[in-house]
Design a protein that fits this description.
The protein contains five helices and no strands. With 86 residues, the protein is mostly helical. The protein has one domain: Globin-like, CATH 1.10.490.
Length: 86
């Protein structure tokens, strides 16, 4: 699942719209991936994790390895998914 998530996320980043269908599909895949590790899900926790991906250089380096800015793009897409950003 992780590989599929990264492929969809990279395609979404290329499309450039965090509210677009590809970006929202990436967020749904990310949420699915989280369900393997989290016993319960909340949009607030998802937002916090996505923000950590931007703030923590280790996570940012992982998500930005192919395309700088991907971690911030994922965060923005999660914010759209959670209804906090248009």
């Amino acid at each position: 699942m992780g590989e599929e998530l990264l492929e969809v996320l990279n395609a979404a980043f290329q499309a450039g719209d965090p509210a677009g269908d590809l970006a929202q599909e990436a967020v749904k895949l990310h949420r699915q991936w989280l369900s393997y590790y989290w016993h319960s899900y909340s949009k607030e926790a998802h937002i916090g994790l996505a923000q950590m991906y931007v703030d923590d250089e280790r996570f940012r380096a992982y998500y930005d390895q192919k395309q700088p800015g991907t971690a911030a793009f994922l965060r923005d897409a999660v914010l759209v998914f959670a209804g906090k950003k248009k």
